[in-house]
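Researcher: Let's run the pair from yesterday's discussion. Sequence first, then C-alpha cells, for each.
Model: Starting with the first of the pair.
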Amino acid sequence: MKTKYIRLFQSMVMLALVVSCTDLDVEIKSQYTEFPDSEVAAEAKASGAYFAFRGPLGDPYNQAQVLSTDELMCYAFDNGDYYDGGRYVHLTLHSWNADDGGINYWGDLAGGITTCNQLIAELGGNESDATAPIRAVRAFYFFILMDSFGDVPLLDHVLDDEEAIDRSPRPDIARFIESELLAVRDRLTTNVDVATYGKPTRWMADALLAKLYLNWAVYTASDVTAYTPTASNSKLNDLVSVCDDVIASGKFDLSDNYASKFIPENGPHIKDFIYVMPYDRQTQQGMTYARFRSHRNANADFYGVTLPASVGGNIVVNTAFLDKFNLEGDDRNAQFIGGPLFIRSASTYQATDAPWMVGGQQVTLSREIVLDQVTETMPVDNTPHGGRSKGYRSIKFYMDLKTTAAQARSQSNDVPIFRFADVLLMKAEAILRGATATRGDTPMSLMNQIRTYVHAPLITQDPTLEELLDERAREFTDENWRRNDLIRYGKFEDDWGYKNTINPTAKTALYRRIFPIPRSVLNTNTNWSQNPGY
C-alpha cells in the first residue's frame, strides 16, 4: 500500500491552545520542554483539547446524524431558501456527496486529535497521569471519525516534518480505541461534579467502550457493505461489564424529568448526564438546533417573546417516526408539537390557551409532509399556512429565549453525548443479543427503569430487539445516535419519507453506511482514495 501524506493534520496544529480560535494561519513557534508543575496550569492547557467537537455537534455532525435517518427530514422553500446546494436535502435523500457541507466535519476532529497529540507530548507522554483524560477524548474523536468515515489515519503522535501516514483500516481504529480506553480508564477521575462536567472521566470511558462494543461487529466487518445485523459480536460480555461499572458507581440516576434535560440552562445538576458538550449563548457558541426545527414565523410571539433573529423552519419530523410516540402518559410524547399551535409560556415553556395567530389565522402544523413537487430539491411554498406549516416539529432542545441577535441564535442548551439511560438500554440490548445477565438485571427490568421515569406503561416481558430499537427512538431522538442504531440493526437503507421515492438507489446503497471523505480533505491529501461507491 502506498504511503500518503496527511497534511491536513499538520495544518490543524494551531488549534492546540485555544478552542475558539478562528485564525487558521497561526504558527506555533515554541513548545514546552517541561510542563509547568501546577495542576491549575495543566488543567488550563488541557482544556484546549476537550472541546474540538463543539462546532460539529452544534451543526453539521448533528444534521448528518439525524437527517440521514427516519427521525427528521428537511425540505427547501420554493424560492431556494435552505436548499444551499443540497447540503440538507441530500442527507434526507441519501444522495450526499463529497462536496456537501453537511458532512464536512472531518477537519474539526482531525484538529482535535492533533491538539491532543501535542498536549500528550508536552505533558510527559503516555506514562503521565496528566495525559489520561486527553487520551480518552482523543479516543472519542477517533470514534466519531471512524463511525462517520470508516478508514482514518491512526495518528497517535506529533508528526515530524514531511512524515507520511496512511489511513488505517476501520477494524484497526476500533481496536486502537479500545486499547487506549482500557489503558487510561483506571487513571481517570471518578468525580462527577462541576469541575469534571464536559470532560473525560472514568464513566465517560466506560460509556464510550460500551458504545464501541455494541457496534463491534459493524466496525470490524471486512467492509461496510458486508455487515449484517446477525453478525456475531464477541464483545457483548465486555459491554455488560463496563455498563455495570457505571451502574455500580451510584453516580448517575434517572431522577430528572425528561424535558428538563434538554432545555436552556441544563447543566451539571442533571444526574443522567455522563458526558456532555457544554454550550453557552455568549461564551461557548454554536448550538442552534431550535433555529432549524421551529416554524419559520416562530420568531414572532410563538415562544411568548419576540426573538431577535429569524428562524429557519426547514427541519420537520418524518410522519412514520411520530407513530412510535404512542405510549399513554409518556412524557417523551411532548417533545414533538403539531396540529393547532398555541403561544407558549416564556417562563414554563408550556403551551398556553392563547392560539398562535399569524396573519389573523391560527397556525396549524400538518402531520403529513406534502411537497409541492416530488423532486430532488424537495420544494414547499414559503407561506405561513402553507409550506411553512408542513410537518410536526421537535421542541426537545427548546429555543433559548435569552439569546440575542449578536449571538447568532446560539443556545445555552448543553447537548448530552452519553447518558445513564443509554447505558441501561445498551446493557439490555447486549443481553438480548446473547450476553450473560448480571446484577439481577433483565432486558425487561432495565427497560422498565426508563419507562418508570418517563411515566410510560411498564412492559411485562423482555422486549424484542425491534421493541428495544423503538424505545431507543423515543428516548434518544435528536441526540445523534439514530444513524448508529439503524446501521447496527440493518435498517439504514429502509424506506421512509421521500428517500427511496426520489432516490431509488438508496435501498441498495450499502456503501452509504459511511460518508465520503470530504473533497477538501482529498484535495489536501491527493494520494488518498475516496471511499468506495462515491
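Model: Moving on to the second of the pair.
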Amino acid sequence: MTDLAPIEKIKADSRGLRGTLARSIADPITGGLAEDDTQLLRLHGSYQQDDRDLRDLRRAQKLEPLWRFMVRLRLPGGVCTAAQWLAIDAIARTHANDSLRLTTRQTFQFHGIAKGALKPTMAALNAALMDTIATCGDVNRNVLASANPVESPAHYAVAECAKRLSEHLLPKTRAYHEIFLDGEKLAGTPEAEPLYGKSFLPRKFKTAIAVPPYNDVDLFANDLGFIAIIEDGTLVGFNLTVGGGLGATHGDAATYPRLADVAGFLPVDGLLAVAEAVLTTQRDFGDRTNRKHARLKYTVADRGLAWFVAEVERRAGFALGPARPFEFTSNGDRFGWLEGFDGRWHRTLRIPAGRIADTYDQPWLTGWRELAKIHTGDFRITANQNAIIAGVAAVDRPRVDELIARFRLDAAEHANPLRRDALACVALPTCPLAMAEAERYLPQLLGKLEELLEHHGIAQVPLIVRVTGCPNGCARPYLAEIGLVGKAPGRYNLHLGGDARGQRLAVLHRENLDEPTFLAELNEHFAAFAAGRAGAERFGDFLWRSGRIGNPKAAITAD
C-alpha cells in the first residue's frame, strides 16, 4: 500500500486536533511551535510564519526566525456587525501589525501576531462572537456568498444558506475552545467527527454560493459551489458545481487549475444533504498519499463527473435534477450606493489589495474605525478584497458620506478600471510559499501598466489583472485577463485570456519573465487590442478571438 502523506498521521494521532498545541503555545523558550503543531494550528485558523525580510539577518545573528502568526476569521458571507469591526480593529492595533487584510475568501486576516498574543487574540474574538475555526487547513473553509444579501429577499435567503452551510460543515471537536479559550479539557476518547472522521479531509475544501448575474465569488474556482436559481423573485434551489480549484505546482504538469463542473439542480431543502455528500465523498475518495493531488478537482477529474454525481446522489438520498439555465455577466464588485429591498442603502468601497492601514497620507484604518462607531447597520467583505457599508438608513447617508470624504476612503473607487479590479495575494515578507512579490509590488506594477494603456488610448477599458507570489493561486490569477504568478524574485509566469465572468481559464503564455520582458510582451498585445478591438470587447476575449493565445476552440470554459 502506498504510504500516506506525513500530515495524515499527524491529523489521525492528534486527538481531535489537540496534539501538543497547548504545550507549544505555553513554551517560553521559543517564539514558534513544535513542527507537528504548526500543521494542526492551521485547522484552527492560523499559520506560523516569519518575517522573511529579516530571515538572513537573524540567521547571521544566530537567532531563530522572527516567528509570527497569521490569524484568519470565520465570517460566512463576509458579514460582521459594526461592534465586531471595532473589536477587529482593536485586535489589529493591540496584537497584530496595525493593519487589517481583507482576503479573497470574504474575511479578515491579522498578520504579525506573536505567539504570546494568540490566546488573547482568540479570546477577544470570542468576546465579540467570532472565531477562527476551520478557516485554514484540511476542512471546509469560510463559505463565500454574493456580497450584498439584502439586494432582494432572495439574496437574503442565500446569505442565510451560507450561514447554515458554514455551521453544518464545522468540525465538532472542542479542541479550539480548550486550547485558546481555556475551556474544559477533554478526558478520554476524542469527540466523534461524523463528517470529517479522525483524519479530516485530504486537503483544503472551499465552498461558495453565487446569485446570477453576478459571479462576484468566482464560483467555478471552488471545490463546492451553488448557483442560486431565482424564479419570480423567490429562491427555488441551486445548480450544484463541483471540482473547481486553482492551485498548481511550477513544472509539474500533473497539477493544474480547474474550473468546477455544473452537476445538476437541487431544491433549497436539499442544500445541507448535498453539501455533506460532496464533502464526505471527497473525504473517502480523495488522495491521501500525494497532497499535490489531494484536492476535490483531481477526484472528479480522475473518476469522472458521472461517477461522482452518482456517489453524491447515493449519499444525499435523492437524485439531482437537470441543471437550470443561468447567466453570469460579471465577477467584479459594484461600487457606490445601491438601494436594498428593505429601503436601506449599501456603499461598496475599493480597498487596494485588501489592506486597511494608516499611512502618512491615507488614514484608512482610522477612517473605517470612525465609520464603525456611528454605523447602525453592518459591514460586508467581498471576495474581491473590498468592503460594503451595509444597511444605511437614507437619513444617515450624508453622515456616512462625510466620513468617507474626510478620510478619503473613496480615493481608490475613482481610479481607472485597472486599479479598481486588480487583486494581489499577501506574498512577501510573511507568506512562506511566496517566490516573488505580490501585494507590495502591485502599486508599482499598475503604474507601469497604466502608462502602456494610456499610450494606446485604452486606459478606461476594463481589465482584470491579478498577481500572486506563488502558483497556489490565492488571488485567483488563473481566472484573470492578465495573471502574473511568481516564479522567483522579480520573475513571473504570464497567464492570459481569462474572462470577465469567471468562466474561462487563462492560459500559461510565457514562463519565468522579468518585468521588462513581460511588459514588452503586454505592450504588443495592448497595441493589437487597441487597433483591432470589436465594439466593447474585453481584452481576454480579444486575445482568444484574434488567435494571439491558444486555440479559441480549446478555451476551457464553464457554462
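Researcher: Give me one sentence on the second I can quote.
Model: DSSP finds 17 helices and 20 strands in the chain.
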